[in-house]
């Protein structure tokens, strides 16, 4: 019987092997690895999901300080899941990413890619040599002669660091995404983006909060706040005079172990104050969005990220934002084999899993395959490979030459 099941699984793997790659979310508190399988019917199945915590101060403000700890953690996860040497999608924290929505003259993706670095210089406040840029055409019909484009730039040294830890751990990072877009892709897989509805996705990690607002499946606003669950850990450390490890325990296990003690009440009090501060920051961002956008009525806020589990935080969000708030369920549309996975355990981990699930929906070359969702790749591999095959190239023009003239010149030639 066992051999038959094994043969059946093997046949499935051979015939329906999807191109999806491993999703690796290198968070500053926890590293998560997810592997999904997509069947031809579109059904998506969970193959593996594992997490491991990093020691404190390993990654600070999106910058890796302890490379060995990160490599060891990723290598351990890859071994546990059996994906050593596999292609993977990673994401860099939104600390190191600049996201702009720009409106430019209509052109093909090929043309856009040819001139995007020159175009990016006008919008990104960094030297073009120090950033990796990618683009996605959002709305080809934004105007008669124009289109909306999502322009994303990631700091080159950060991309290199994140890629190098994955490589050293034995994986092949072929896609470099940003946390915000990975969240959007996980949301799209599980909920779809309802037409004529504006939803906000808020990912509350350890060191940052990523906010994105999506309207009619188009990203209309993104914002990053440099604050997260570590703020609560630090406040508990100060308030109770305890170590980082103990503060983490009070934070995550308090309900079960300390419910009647004075310590529990103190943790609850601190958690309430920290939640108010986080919600105030989120509210400022959403108020700014509302003040600068037409049709900005957000119908629902979806939360993800480990720190979104703080019950005081969810209550404060609902009270202060007066919009329905719910935690994203990243397993909602994913088939899970209950013989292989403990559903209670997966549900407990679900707020942490969103970014990894979004990354696990990526595959090498998906930008060209016109897949739904945001398909940004800051790895530069695809674009450079295509360029090197071309016998010709668009050359960079002086900044003063407008894109219109650039196109006209080409047309005259
Ligand atoms: N049950 C819980 N209650 C409250 N906080 C929790 C709980 N479980 C985890 N956390 C907190 O969630 C945070 C980790 O969440 P997550 O894994 O989403 O962050 P990360 O991806 O590592 O960080 P970042 O995205 O900011 O780099 C930590 O601050 C952790 O203490
Ligand atoms: Mg994170």
Automatic annotation (TrEMBL):
GO biological process, one term: cell division
Domain SHS2: 21-187
SUPFAM superfamilies listed in its UniProt record: Actin-like ATPase domain
A Pfam family: PilM_2
Cited CDD domains: ASKHA_NBD_PilM
Protein name per the record: SHS2 domain-containing protein
Species of the source: Candidatus Magasanikbacteria bacterium RIFCSPLOWO2_12_FULL_43_12
